[in-house]
Amino acid sequence: MMDDSWVINSFSFKLTIVCIIAIGLVVAPKVFVQIKGENNVMFGNPTVLVREALYNLGNYSQAIQYYDKALAIDPHYSYALTNKGIALENLENYTGALRYLDKALSIDPHYVKALNGKGVALYGLGNYAGAIEYYDKALAMDPHYVKALYNKGWTLGVLGNYAGAIEYYDKALAIDPHYVNALYNKGWTLAGLGNYAGAIEYYDKALAIDPRDKFALTDKGVALDGLGNHAEAIQYYDKALAIDPHFVLALNGKSWALYKLRLQITINH
Predict the structure, then answer these.
(1) In the chain, at which end, N or C, are there fewer CB atoms within 10 A of the end residue's CB?
(2) 134 and 181 fall within a common domain
(3) Within this chain, do residues 137 and 183 fall inside the same structural domain, yes or no?
(4) pLDDT in tens, 92-145
(5) What pLDDT band is residue 183 in, cutting at 50, 70 and 90?
(6) Phi-psi domain of 115 (left: phi exceeds 0; alpha: psi -120 through 50; beta: other)
(7) Domain harbouring 112, CATH code
(8) How many CA atoms lie within 13 Å of 223's alpha carbon, on the beta-carbon side?
(9) 218 and 122 fall within a common domain
(10) Range of the domain at 200
C-alpha cells in the first residue's frame, strides 16, 4: 500500500472537479499563461485544472494525455514530468514511471516529490534498497515529507524490519495524526508482532476516519481472533462483507473464526 497519490473522498469535491473537467474541455484556450506553481512554472488555464482533476479522480490514462500536451509545449516542465511518472506508477508501469521521474530529477535533482516518486517506482520494480535510498534523499530535502516517511516505513516492514517500520509510521503520524494508511499499517505491523491489543487501537483510529475501510475492518477481526474474541471478530468480518460481499480476506477470516468459535463452545461444554 504505497502512497504517492491524493485520494479525494468528498463526493461534493468530486462533483466540483467533474464540473471543472466539463468546463475546461470546452473553454480551455490554446494560449498558455504561466503562473507560479509547485516548485515550478504551472500553466494557468483550465487545461491544468482538467489534468489535475483527472489525476485526482483516478483517471490516470487520461491525465497522462494532458501531461503530454504540457510536455509538448515545454519538455523540461519538471512538474508535468513528475506527475506523469506518478500517474504511470498508479497504472503499475514502473519502468515508464522511472523514465519520466529521472527526466524530472535531471532538471531538478532536489525535487522532493520526484525523489519520493522514484522511490515508489523502484519499490514497484522490487528494488527495495534503492527505494529506501530515494526516500532518504527526499527526507534529506524535507524531513517532514509525510509520504516519504510513510513509504519508508512500509518498505522497512516488507523487509521484516518491523521496529523500523513502526518508527517511520510514528514519524508520519506525528506530522499528520489522521494519515489513515499510516494508522492502518502501524496496526498491521503491531499485529504481525503479536501485539493484537495495540493493533486494534490503531485499526480503531483508522476506522474513526474511514468506517468503511474493509481492510481495517477485516484486520481488526483478525486481531480479535488473535485475542480469542471470535464472536466479536465475526461481527467485523460481517461489516467488511457488507461493504464487499466477495472480499476473500473477510470470507476466509469469518470461516476461520466460525470454526474456532465452534471449537471453543465444544471445549467449554
Answers:
(1) C
(2) no
(3) no
(4) 999 999 999 999 999 999 999 999 999 999 999 999 999 999 999 999 999 999
(5) very high
(6) alpha
(7) 1.25.40.10
(8) 27
(9) no
(10) 177-269
CB atoms within 10 A of CB 1: 10
Residue 9 identity: N
Q: Cα–Cα distances in Å, from 213 out to 20, 34, 233, 238?
A: 29, 40, 15, 13
Q: Return the DSSP state at 176.
A: -
Q: How far is CA 91 from the centre of its chain?
A: 13
Maximum alpha-carbon separation in the chain: 80
Evaluate whether residue 184 is within a structural domain: yes
Q: Which residues of 95-108 are buried (b: 16+ CB within 10 A; e: fewer)?
A: ebbbebbebbbeeb
- Rounded to whole angstroms, the Cα distance separating 185 from 4 reads 16
Asked if residue 140 and residue 188 are part of one domain, the reply reads no
Could you read off the pLDDT of 133-181 as tens digits, one per residue? Answer: 999 999 999 999 999 999 999 999 999 999 999 999 999 999 999 999 9
Is residue 165 situated within a structural domain? no
Q: Which three cell numbers stand for residue 4?
A: 504517492
**pLDDT at residue 10 greater than cutoff 70:** no
Q: How far apart are CA 120 and CA 27, in angstroms?
A: 35
User: How far is it, in rounded angstroms, from Cα 104 to Cα 100?
Assistant: 6
- Our count of domains for the chain comes to 2
| Predicted pLDDT at 108 | 96
Residue 75 phi/psi, 5-degree rounding, is -65, -15
Instruction: Specify whether 85 is located in the same domain as 32.
Output: yes
Asked, for residue 20, whether it belongs to a domain, the answer is yes
Report the C-alpha gap between 194 and 198 in whole angstroms: 9
